[in-house]
Design goal:
Helix content is about 95%, strand content about 0%. It is an all-alpha fold.
Length: about 140
């Protein structure tokens, strides 16, 4: 059984002094350290969430820029192909026109050469005919 005497009162006072001592030197400093650590962890968690959101924004911006660059590249490529096709058509038309001019000029030259050859051959044929007639008749033909 518990006796209530002065020893109990001393132990009770000793207990409260120890509680105050431990509270002041142990519990409060440890709780302050735990609170600081919790605040730091919350701050880091907030910073990490903000960094993740920023990274997602940057990734979206990068994807948008990459898509725009692809569209611009495709447009440039299409325009270049159309310009090349137009240039090819122009070169082909010019080549065909020069070909037609060359053929026409050659035909004119050939026709002129043929007329000259015909005229020369007519003169030669007439001369040969006279020579043959002279030889056959033995006299000069008119």
């Amino acid at each position: 059984m518990i006796e209530l005497n002065e020893s109990f009162l001393i132990q009770l006072v000793n207990f409260f002094v120890m509680i105050l001592f431990l509270n002041y030197f142990l519990f409060k400093p440890v709780m302050e350290i735990v609170d600081r650590r919790n605040k730091a962890l919350k701050g880091l968690s907030t910073d990490a969430a903000k960094a993740a959101a920023d990274a997602a924004t940057f990734v979206k911006e990068y994807d948008d820029l990459a898509a725009e660059a692809k569209r611009a590249t495709a447009a440039i490529l299409i325009a270049s192909r159309q310009a090349a096709a137009a240039e090819q058509d122009k070169i082909l038309k010019d080549a065909r026109a020069r070909y037609a001019e060359t053929v026409d000029a050659a035909l004119v030259t050939i026709k002129a050469d043929i007329k000259g050859a015909e005229a020369g051959l007519k003169g030669e044929a007439e001369k040969l005919s006279r020579d043959m007639a002279t030889r056959l008749l033995g006299r000069e033909a008119r």
